[in-house]
Amino acid sequence: MTADDSVGRLEDDDFPAYTMGRAAEMLSITPGFLRAIGEARLITPLRSEGGHRRYSRYQLRIAARARELVDQGTPIEAACRIIVLEDQLEEALRINAEYRRAAGE
């Protein structure tokens, strides 16, 4: 692996670069919160060879959104469902925009 490969992986939003402890520290949340949203299947961290959870930047953004909703009083299960629905809506809007562009060409 070259230095360029390492830099490229760190820039990849889906590369599992962060341990549970580091992820929790970065987001000012507890490891238990990360486990809870994992159990709710909002995010599924990859596992290192030693079995430790590893999180990507994309997953950290999702965890931060969940934390925001929970801090506003939303139960964690409902927060996870809201985030899934928001993601589905965003994808549907993206596809719709593609269809409109294609129809206009």
Automatic annotation (TrEMBL):
It comes from Streptomyces marianii. SUPFAM superfamilies: Putative DNA-binding domain. One of its GO terms (biological process) is regulation of DNA-templated transcription. Residues 17-85 form the HTH merR-type domain. This is MerR family transcriptional regulator. The lineage of its organism: Bacteria, Bacillati, Actinomycetota, Actinomycetes, Kitasatosporales. Pfam families: MerR_1. SMART domains: HTH_MERR. One of its GO terms (molecular function) is DNA binding.
